[in-house]
Specification:
The complex is a heterodimer of chains A (503) and B (225).
Chain A: E1 2-3, E2 8-10, E3 16-17, H1 19-31, E4 35-43, E5 48-56, E6 63-71, E7 76-78, H2 88-98, E8 101-103, E9 146-151, E10 163-169, E11 172-179, H3 187-190, H4 196-204, H5 211-226, H6 232-260, H7 264-285, E12 294-295, E13 298-299, H8 305-331, H9 333-339, H10 347-353, H11 357-361, H12 369-372, H13 393-414, E14 434-442, E15 445-453, E16 459-465, H14 468-478, H15 487-494, H16 498-502
Parallel strand pairs in A: 3-6, 7-8
Antiparallel strand pairs in A: 1-6, 2-14, 4-5, 5-6, 9-10, 10-11, 12-13, 14-15, 15-16
Helix pairs in contact in A: 4-5, 5-6, 6-7, 6-13, 6-15, 7-8, 8-13, 13-15
Chain B: H1 2-11, E1 34-35, E2 42-44, E3 57-58, E4 73-75, H2 89-93, E5 97-103, H3 109-115, E6 129-131, E7 140-144, H4 152-161, E8 167-171, H5 173-177, E9 199-201, H6 208-218
Parallel strand pairs in B: 5-6, 5-7, 7-8, 8-9
Antiparallel strand pairs in B: 1-3, 2-4
The chains are: A alpha+beta (503), B alpha/beta (225).
């Protein structure tokens, strides 16, 4: 059944295939150029679980939703991962959330360490009793001079927790396994029900550095189900905030890369300049991360002419500073030597792993929700896609630089011409028995939220997918054959979210 | 080399004069310490996420850090901002404080705004405060997040690895009270009954100035206010 970004369909209109048909269709589509965007389970009453696959269609810019039923009596199905590696983490998530066994899954391990949603025996029975990482079956290697390095969950910097286990031969990394779940707060079940006021606050805290991205996705799911036409002015302010969020993080990332290449002046300057964009968000929303801006129906804060002028003036100054400092960073041979050829992900590999966002674009995959699945303001204003070909740290840095410039350009275009009118519309009750989907190109890549309603029009299942969910495995792959000392640099070039993954 | 010097020259000095001179003024929409004067009632700043659409009136004052959990309850105009007390902290850590940060379910907003203190704008190291890589090098820990079930053990172990005497600082609504995640199955209600807390910094997330102000108060580097 076809669907567009921001659309919804009745649950009864989603085809229910047999388990083998489902698997076959998903694999066939993905082999012919479509992409697995989401794969998750939802309670199907006492009879079991209904699995949904959301596929991104290559040519039409649309989405295709397929489903199958897994009965409570025989809670297993044949795994898709062997034919479609991009499904690997999705299937682990399904196994953990619903205690359904994907038979023949090659890498079946816990994801977030929580008991399942069905209240039956878990696939990993020890999950409830023991804390991580004690129970995690790490991949291990054996042999003379092969050694293991474990890092985390508490790291050296001011960052979130996660455990990294390196299998090394000397300085050479043969394999890296990344084990997360420490940040798991149980957000998806909290988003069920009909308390939208609390829901939007939770969505702002899925990943604080992507507050705008996730709260926007949440609002769009609600608006789709409630049939709200969001006023154009509100839509424009939302995308302006989304681009500011991108600027904050991309500029910060370039600083972090400068730091790990050992070129401290650029790290200090970018670090400070990141604050300039945070302060623009503060001026607009009263919060440096944009918390409090997006609400179902529109936005809480408007921009008057004075604020628009001030923003445009500042953005022009910031652009000059950015040109200066990024010129400095990318002109140093020692920096380039550190960036080039490190952590390479080839285009084909990125595609197989299902990577998204700047990481995918650095491997020349043309993936950008703003272009491919444009909705709202993106249908009227276009932003060119930023690609790079080499798939290394340098490519990921260059994509960020290009996106910073394009976001500033975009803001300078959209802000002076903000559509007139109100900034919010009333939100009525949500449609019953429906499946709504929204996608947002957050600064890390493709965010997707799916809301499924019951016969009363309240959420029975809310699915959140942060781009990091796709990309963590990419980081592990990028480290193969590198040296341990390349890890910090490579990690910064991905800069993935722990809490966005852990939910 | 010349280019580095030219860029350096263009950047100039960006460090805030705070805590010297007048308090920095934040934008009008910034949601600082709430105002309830004249309306009666009380507000628990530790549980608040400082949202714009809750009917609460906010001032522009970023100073909110306190020493005791009960001091976070705002009644009228009274608010007991953190003060250095004679409990050894000033003598021990007043001129050199090394901290280890632990994120225990934080959404990375608090973490990011703690990190910002290391930028030239806030330049934390000029006060002798430094975030260090290991708890064994630290005088205390700064905790963010509601303390998830999966981070609880790692948090307690990190605390235990810090040599005595040590301090604990809770940053953000989640660490103080659980915030928006309070009373949910996978999260604790903040640090409350897990570790003894010496400084509470409310906010979602707190502005870097709120955090800096709190740290300076704790070690007796703010003479007034």
């Amino acid at each position: 059944m076809g669907l567009f970004n921001g659309g919804n369909i009745a649950l009864t209109d989603i085809p229910v295939l047999t388990s083998d048909e489902f698997r076959g269709e998903v694999v066939r589509h993905c082999q012919s150029g479509d992409r697995l965007v989401n794969l998750f389970g939802s309670s199907d009453g006492p009879q079991g679980v209904r699995l949904f696959a959301v596929l991104g269609l290559e040519d039409e810019g649309g989405l295709l939703v397929l489903s199958t039923r897994v009965l409570a009596g025989s809670p297993s199905y044949r795994s898709i991962t062997r034919d479609l590696p991009a499904a690997h983490l999705f299937e682990r998530e399904i196994a953990e959330q619903w205690a359904i066994l994907p038979e023949g899954h090659p890498w079946l391990k816990p994801v977030r360490y929580h008991v399942n949603y069905r209240g039956v025996a878990d696939i990993w029975p020890e999950i409830e009793r023991r804390s991580i990482p004690g129970v995690y079956p790490f991949y291990a290697m054996d042999g003379d001079e092969v050694h293991e390095v474990g890092v985390g969950p508490v790291h050296a910097g001011i960052i979130e927790p996660g455990h990294f286990r390196f299998q090394c031969h000397g300085e050479n990394i043969l394999h890296l396994e990344i084990q997360l779940g420490y940040q798991h707060r149980g957000i998806e079940p909290m988003l069920c029900g009909r308390d939208l006021k609390r829901g939007v606050l939770l969505s702002e805290s899925i990943a604080g550095d992507t507050s705008i991205g996730h709260s926007l996705a949440f609002c769009e799911v609600v608006e789709s189900l409630a049939g709200v036409m969001v006023p154009p002015r509100a839509q424009a302010i939302r995308v302006a905030a989304l681009e500011l969020e991108r600027l904050v993080n991309h500029v910060g990332d370039l600083g972090a890369l400068g730091m790990d290449a050992g070129f401290l002046p650029t790290s200090a300057y970018f670090g400070r300049m990141r604050g300039d964009y945070l302060n623009l968000l503060l001026a607009l929303t009263g919060n440096r991360f944009g918390k409090g801006l997006c609400r179902p129906g529109g936005v809480v804060f408007d921009m008057d002419a004075g604020m628009v002028d001030e923003f445009c003036y500042k953005l022009k100054c910031y652009k000059k500073e950015f040109d200066d400092v990024s010129g400095l960073l990318f002109s140093r041979p020692s920096v380039l030597a550190r960036f080039e050829g490190v952590g390479v992900i080839a285009m084909e590999e990125a595609k197989i792993l299902g990577l998204v966002g700047p990481v995918a674009r650095a491997s020349q995959l043309e993936q950008d929700v703003r272009i491919e699945y444009s909705s709202g303001m993106w249908q009227y204003y276009h932003i060119p896609i930023s690609l790079s070909a080499t798939g290394d740290v340098l490519a990921r840095a260059l994509v960020r630089r290009q996106e910073v410039l394009r976001s500033i350009e975009f803001l300078l275009k959209i802000l002076p011409g903000l559509p007139k009118g109100p900034v919010s519309a009333p939100v009525g009750p949500m449609k019953a028995d429906s499946f709504a989907v929204s996608m947002v190109e957050g600064w890390r890549g493709e965010i997707m939220h799916v809301g499924i309603t019951d016969d009363q029009g309240s959420f029975t299942r809310y699915k959140v997918k942060d781009p990091s969910f796709h990309n963590w495995f990419g980081l592990a792959q990028a480290m193969r054959g590198q040296e341990i000392s390349d890890f910090p640099l490579c990690n910064k070039s991905f800069n993935l979210s722990y809490c966005g993954h852990d939910l | 080399m010349l280019r580095i010097l030219i860029t350096r020259f263009k950047q100039g000095c960006r460090t805030l004069s705070f805590p010297k001179g007048a308090l920095p003024v934040l934008p009008v929409r910034y949601r600082g310490r709430p105002v309830i004067a004249g309306q009666g009632g009380a507000l628990d700043l530790g549980a608040m996420t400082f949202i714009p659409d809750s009917g609460v009136r906010y001032s522009n004052d970023f100073r909110m850090a306190v020493r005791r959990r009960e001091d976070l309850i705002l009644k009228g105009d009274e608010y007991a901002l953190a003060r250095a007390v004679n409990d050894g902290i000033v003598k021990m850590f007043g001129r050199s404080l090394k901290l280890r940060q632990v994120s225990a379910g934080g959404c990375n907003a608090c973490e990011a705004d703690i990190n910002v203190l290391n930028t030239p704008v806030f330049d934390l190291s000029r006060f002798g405060i430094q975030f260090v890589a290991s708890p064994r090098h630290a005088d205390g820990i700064v905790v963010t997040g509601p303390v998830t079930r999966n981070m609880r053990e790692a948090l307690v172990k990190t605390y235990e690895a810090v040599p005595d005497p040590k301090i604990v600082i809770a940053v953000g609504a989640c660490a103080v009270s659980g915030g928006i995640f309070a009373d949910t199955p996978q999260c604790s209600n903040g640090l409350g009954d897990i570790l003894p807390v010496d400084l509470y910094i409310p906010g979602c997330p707190p502005h870097p100035l709120t955090i800096l102000d709190g740290l300076l108060r704790l070690i007796g580097r703010l003479s007034k206010g």
